[in-house]
Amino acid sequence: MTDNTNAKMLAMQKEHGPLLEVKDLAIDFTTDTGKPVHAVRDANFTVYPGQWVAIVGESGSGKSTSAMAVLGLLPGTGHVVNGSIKLDGEEIAGAKQSEFDKLRGTKMGLVPQDPMSNLNPVWRIGTQVKEALKANNMDVAHEKRSALAKALAGDEVEVKGNDDETFLGAKELPELMTEAKKALTEAGVSGEAFDKAVARFTNEWVPGSETRWRVADDLIKAGVADDQAWYLAKKYVTGSTMDDRIAGLLSEAGLPDAATRARQFPHEFSGGMRQRVGIARAYANQPDIMLMDEPFGHLDAQTRYMMEEELQRIWQKEKRTVIFVTNNIEEALFLADRIILLTNCPTHIKKEYVINMPHPRDYVDPEFLRLRQLITDNMDLTL
């Protein structure tokens, strides 16, 4: 992230204020004999737009419980007994389940630890992504970007309205690609520069994912005049179908040959691929804040590293707000802007770390290793 982009992000966060604000949160569970079990006490934290905040603690420390309270999804007899939870300035700690139902999917999204807990084994993948889109009446022809993403786009291109956020359709892609190559040639782009531009277009212009303003921006960056770039974008980027949008979401989540994958069933997917579907479903409604509850806990180490890099790529593009629950310090350091370290149950916040290292991060960078050791030592003291 450039210094200018970072400054814009900080200014936008200051102007907007916290997207999520948790104060003095206390959560209890009730035993069969009616006795309260104190799970969380005096939890205080804030999350600003565009931030990636990791909640870290040992198994059973209450990190998932704290996060699930935000979504209104406390399990069993769990209930909030004290404190405040404000989402974009609105108090939701005492909200009814019907009110939480409206918030989940539109304002908040969830990627659970076990992807199969969120997938129907007898439905095709595409049907399950479609269900997520239809449940919240999503416009599959237009993007709904976060306010932060719009603010950060200002240096690159002026997005004037909803029409500029129209998705590219599969039907129009071949002709757009042909005309884009002609425009490059007319602009005097040739040789290696031409090949690189075409390769970028081929990679980035995914139906149901790429939008009119991004197509125009790609053309301008490749050397096409502004007026010509916008002319082509407006002529050929006219909206996606439901199938386009489904394939676009799966592609954004890192699934190759997305149109084919949409016709398959969950049992045909590996654990990592299922989790990618979970991410696609959660992002389908483009919520303001995404909660990921140990999403890589069931994956092998290599797949876990790949998924971390995939998530970082998605975040760089979307700039959405993420709360990431994990017991893996390396994972938290690789992804997060801030790390909230919890004590054991009844949990409270022991320490908060601001991570100022630029992305992408290196696991063997001296500063990365120093912070990992620092947090590990502090975490051990809570055992």
Notes on the protein architecture:
This protein has two domains: 17-107 and 287-380, P-loop containing nucleotide triphosphate hydrolases (Rossmann fold, 3-Layer(aba) Sandwich); 147-240, no CATH class. It has 15 helices and ten strands. The protein has helices at residues 3-16, 63-71, 97-103, 125-135, 147-152, 173-186, 191-204, 212-222, 226-236, 242-252, 258-261, 271-284, 301-318, 329-335, 366-380, and strands at 20-30, 36-47, 52-56, 79-87, 90-91, 108-111, 289-293, 321-326, 338-342, 349-354. A six-stranded mixed sheet has the order 6-7-8-3-9-10, sandwiched between helices. Strands 2-1-4-5 form a four-stranded antiparallel sheet, with helices on one face. Helix 4 packs parallel to helix 12 (271-284). The longest helix is centred in the C-terminal third of the chain and has 18 residues, at 301-318. It starts with a helix and ends with a helix. The model has no long low-confidence stretch (mean pLDDT 88).
What is the class of the largest domain in the CATH system? Alpha Beta
Structural domains: how many: 2
Report the CATH superfamily of the largest domain.
P-loop containing nucleotide triphosphate hydrolases
Mean pLDDT: 88
H/E series, N to C? Answer: HEEEHEEHEHHHHHHHHHEHEHEEH
Number of strands: 10
Roughly how many Å is the radius of gyration? 22 Å
Main structural class = alpha/beta
Classify the oligomer: single chain
Determine the N-to-C terminus distance: 36 Å
Q: Report helical residue fraction.
A: 40-55%
Q: Main sheet: which strands, in order across?
A: 6-7-8-3-9-10
